[in-house]
Amino acid sequence: MSRLLPVFGAAWLLSMTIGCAATPANSPLRGTGDLGIVIERASGSVQVVDTTRRTRLASIAGLGDLSHASAVYSRDGRYAYVFGRDGGLSKVDLLAGRIAHRIVQGGNSIGGAISQDGRLVVAQNYEPGGIKAFDADTLELLADIPSTYGTEGKRSKVVGLADLPGNRFAYALFDAGEIWVVDLADPRKPGITRFKDIGLQPYDGLVTPDGRYYLAGLFGEDGVAMIDLWRPELGTRRILDGYGRGEEKLPVYKMPHLRGWAVAGRNAYLPAIGRHEVLVVDTDTWQEVRRIAVKGQPVFVMARPDGRQVWVNFAFPDNSWVQVIDTLSGSISTSLEPGKAVLHLEFTPRGENVWISSRDDHRVAIYDTASFALLGQLPADSPSGIFFAARAARIGF
Amino acid sequence: MESPLLARATVLLAVLAGSPVHAREPVEPRRSEIVRMVRHDCGSCHGLTLQGGLGPALTPAALAGRPLDSLVSTILLGRPGTAMPGWARFLDESEARWVVTRLAEGFPREVAQGERAR
């Protein structure tokens, strides 16, 4: 017995060490399919959350300025790449509950994307304007593509970066009114295709879930620029042209955000700019189907994964509201007030729940999407973006 | 309902009338509300740290040499042709003037949640 004790002791110590290092929840093995992160914008931290047990697993500080932050996931769903406002790119290990790697890659950043094969992480920057591609393992810089336009060597702010099939990426140049499609099959030799004169002030973009169409929403005029990526030789096409019908725009106190979540069934649901409406466009014909009056300037217009509902939040000062559109009837099913300053929402992978961040009430509210019942709330410090690991498997996320 | 044009003219008059640079400090809790609004709602374009984003930086260095009156009217009326809307619905002229004055000096930090009684 006395000879066995040291062995047991060593084994116990070893298991404790591994247990502590491996997961914040002290469970030795688990997947990440039901995990995610919540950005705490004012404190530069993220929470790792479990969407099955609706709990916080870890809180991770030291991610810099997260006042505008977004995240993409490694293809194994273990790591979140968090892009901060200050150009920080942090690789967060959800299982270990810590930052695995972190660099500061730009001066003023807005977000990023990950390649189809998961090997490249790409950041889109306001300052200096352009994109940069990094090795997803080491965060080594592989490509630096300035968004230079015009004749004076100016660089545009980059918005709307989306991953495309074939390790390509599409993005829009806010100041230049251009869309660029970059082929990073060999990141050391990027192939750039420029689409010029796509419209004034593209503010964000999205790729449809099938990877075929890239859409850039325009702020400076009423309409959306669209490229059929299967037939790029056709150039850009304007859809929803002149949707404002010449009426004076209402003030926009926060820019809307676009991503592949806009598509529900065969229709895309897009925020109007300066109108309190959601515009519905048929993705076969690209004709407007209908427009739906809502409470305010839409910011996120997000389809539940099955496309049966579309949830909408709003810019200041209507940002305590969330409205749910019934996609069959095109009417509002319900209006909720989840808290003050709702900044973001995220569906669980199959859409039975939605998590909604309330910046000024410092909490995340979790709703059942069928009954609209409030299932629970988690405290968080000025929460903004919520990003679940299931994004790892989706084109355009 | 006031027409937007009339509202604009009224605000513009108020701006012009208030030109002696005098920014009365708003009293609590309004002061904290304004600080939070600037940091978070203005910050959605200008950045929480006001270093700029889609909108330009609002740091003392970036604002150096800019006439305060024109900044006040930008806040209240917006800048046509850009993404900057007018905020006259949410800030009165003296509040906008206080915001501009404080921006030029270095805007107050928000009291972080951890420092508040929970």
Automatic annotation (TrEMBL), chain A:
Protein's UniProt name: Protein nirF
Top-level taxon of origin: Bacteria
Lineage of source species: Bacteria, Pseudomonadati, Pseudomonadota, Betaproteobacteria, Nitrosomonadales
CDD domains hit by this protein: 8prop_hemeD1_NirF
Key words of the record: Signal
Gene3D superfamilies in the cross-refs: C-terminal (heme d1) domain of cytochrome cd1-nitrite reductase
Entry annotated with the keyword Signal: yes
Classification via InterPro entries: Cyt_cd1_C_sf (IPR003143), Haem_d1_sf (IPR011048), Host-pathogen_enzymatic-act (IPR051200)
Signal peptide residue numbers: 1-21
Pfam families: Cytochrom_D1
TrEMBL record, chain B:
Classification via SUPFAM superfamilies: Cytochrome c (SSF46626)
Entry keyword Signal: yes
Signal peptide limits: 1-23
NADP is among the record's keywords: no
GO molecular function terms attached to this record: electron transfer activity; heme binding; metal ion binding
UniProtKB keywords: Heme, Iron, Metal-binding, Signal
InterPro entries assigned: Cyt_c-like_dom, Cyt_c-like_dom_sf
Pfam families noted in UniProt: Cytochrome_CBB3 (PF13442)
Cytochrome c domain mapped to chain residues: 13-107
Protein name stated in the entry: Cytochrome c
